[in-house]
Amino acid sequence: MFSKMGCLAGSCILAVTFGRLDREFRRSTKDTSRRSPAWDTAVLVPMKVDYGLRVLIHLALNPEAGPVSAGQIAAEQKIPEAYLNHVLSNLQAAGMLESRRGPAGGHMLARPASEITVADVFVSFDRSLAPLDCLDSPEECTLSGACSQRELWSDVERVLLERLRKTRVSDLVAEQREMTWAAVAG
Where are the domains of the chain? Predict the structure, then answer.
């Protein structure tokens, strides 16, 4: 599973635990200076992917609201509006968003959240999940044919891609609702 740990220089650092979220660790300590052990398995995720997921989750949380303006999304999700417009364009081109112009215009999901995977979002921004460049372009690596690490990193990419294909925006929406209700109740 994935847990957002923080954002630096245009990329978000996600803890990849390939199983359960490390919620128990975070809940068991109120000491914010302590890091989850999952921090040691961090993966960089492009900011566009993070923003794209935030947009899709935001729209999926209230589908009956109709079209939502870019300004409202930007304000509520803390995304710079100029940057958000690029993200919205990519999501629309990938068939995940529908946009309408005019006074009652805005953005909404083009298909159900249950039909959009996290892998779809990565692909919409032309992002590779390969932890090393040589996995995408082995012909450019002088060691590729005799590299003992290649199979290991290829397996990591496969497991990560498999997990992202299984995780749907609707799963993230359900988790967001659960977290929101827990925060209100707690």
Answer: 47-185
